[in-house]
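Appendix B, record 7
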Amino acid sequence: MVNVSDGFGSSILGYPRVGPHRELKRALESYWHGTLEREELLAVGREIQESQYLELAATGLTQVPGNTFSFYDHVLDNALLFGAVPKRFEPYREDLHPLDFYFLMARGRPDLPPLELVRFFNTPYHYRQPELDSDTEFSLHPEALLDEFDRAKAAGIELRPVILGPLSLLLLSKTGHVPGETEFDKLVLLDKLLPVYEELLEALAKRGATCVQLDEPCFTSDRSPSTIEVFEQAYQRLSTAPLRPRLLVTGQYGDFGEALEALARTKVEAIGLDLANHRIRPDDLAKIPGIGRKRLYAGVISGTNVWRADRVMALEYLNALSQVCPDLVVSTGATLLHVPYDLLVEYELEENVADRLAFAKQKVLEVVSLAKALTDGPNEKWRKRPTSVHFKQKHAVRQRVYNVTQKMREREPYEVRRVAQQAKLNLPLVPATTLGSFPQTTAIRQARYDLGQGKLSYEDYRKRIEAEIEATIRLQEDIGLDVFVHGEHERNDMIQYFAEQLDGFATTHFGWVQVYGSRCVRPPVLYGDVSRPAAISVEWAVYAQSLTDKPVKGMVTGPVTMLARSFVRQDQPLFDTADQVALAIRDEVVDLEKAGIAIIQVDEPSIRELLPLRVKGRAEYLRWAVGAFRLATSGVRAETQIHTHIGYSSRGDVVQAIEELDADVTAIVATRSIEWVLKSLQEDNAEGRGLTHGVGPGVYESRSARIPDIDELDEALTAAAAAITPERLWANPDGGLKTRHHWQLDPSLRNMVAAARRVRRRAEAARTPPEG
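Structure tokens (predicted):
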């Protein structure tokens, strides 16, 4: 820990971990495919760890975080650190190397589903959700953490280990998954978990650690007074443990709220606030009893966007904070896991865009620079505020948004549309379909790369894509699906593909961000007014439809998802940007209809990602998010069927928002939680506030290698039919199939089709009057 007499400290709360060139991704996939030995993979992990803490120490940070590396997911790492292994995995532990056992929990196998993949707060990252039983026992397994600490110490660097706090570990976990056991209050396990945390703190203190970071992001969401009381009691206990390092407790991704006051009453030495996502007034901070005696990690540099900080404004704010909390450390508000590594490797970003950006390396330098200016005072360069870069506004785009009317967000009543769509499409009961992407071959990925490098003509590229589309159509015919997709072989990513062809977006070559495991994406940068110069997906959808008499869905990414998975401009209200994107998507949807595409899926899987973590602000967010989707989809005729794909939430306000989207069919990410989803739908329908349109509650997990059998899928679809009626039910996986192999995809889809036909026959028999 830095001595405040030496000046103000500097730190970050975490760092990207896949390697600057995605070394971990390549090593993981080679290991999983059997072409890399285990020791080689472990060596890659050690190299990423060591190069990271050496690099961070060299920047001048006064404190370097440790234990931020993960081979797959840090939440799973923390579950294993404290011995939280579900019973269904225990039989395999003795026969597997610890690393392979870890991957078994993360990835599963055909006869054993992995831990559920769940969104991590309001970020694009997903974590593997730990499973807890009422009789779960905890035990300490700190070998990897201590090994990294010792290696860094031998290099002259003291790391500050980063550990998920005990309450967030429990709250992020899942209960009620064991047959015969219902959900229970996870915090009842806290009394068993806290002694293991104390054991770890003691082990680290004996190793020479002077500070440990405990992350409690769950407390930037609304929590009951009783939960806040438990939170305070837990940290009063940990902070009075007889042998421990100093404790830094952080609240990332938003407003720490009531938890801040609770922590201030404990003996915890340091508190980290995400002041980039929620800026607290110094006067309000000063009203919290005891806060002035804490070390404040002032997270003024954002860990969730890529925009440069206004250093003059940040320095003024830090100076004001230091009057309240003299022991102050300049920091990031959240881990830098959610931003790319290095801006300087991007050689094709326009200069006036690049000048406004900061990736992980640049954000570290911002932190160090602010701490130095806070300690020594700003020099002449600091006093001169950098010239702001203003992008040229597009009058036509802004005028178009201004001219939007409520009528442009409305379609004919659903019952009118349903009759018109059935007359046109003549679909059977419980139609079977997929949600868009099919596996991409190495050859297609290479062709896309060669096109971008100018090594392949567009005509040759088009022929290769068309060959893949035809193969995908023929496969769907053979499987027996009722509504087809073209497979999205031309797309690198559902967001980037559209961003590359919309004005107002910039895309990167190396701006990779981890989503989960080895899966990485390159979020675009939405910096200016958005418009669509030309049709984007029409060519491929029309070609696919020409190959079959079955309807082929047009596939478009929705406006809110485009925002949620991009780094979005901050110089105008988000709802204005959403409407700009919505109008560009509207043009695409209308062109698809004009080209003869009768079903158009406008995906909004990320509509929950932007949902405020606290109740305040949710209603307003859902109002404009729903409005943007309806603006994008309401330009078509009644007989054109609009689908969407969305992540499910049992919160009543989100269920109502899904209904208000007014899509004709909503596919829901729900596989691993389908029981409570169906229960919720039944309860909502009984109360008159449920979904009244078509619903496809995904019946198998698209990200898992597991192949569900017909009886299992039949059972899920039968339960769904009972909840929402066969007339409104669709059969589909819970996501795209891009990451699957055909040996997994083919039997899974065939089993789904067979199960859908079973349910269809029973439903038809039930509504056919007996003869005579």
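Remarks on this record: The first strand starts at residue 9 and ends at 10. The chain is about 40% helix and 10% strand.
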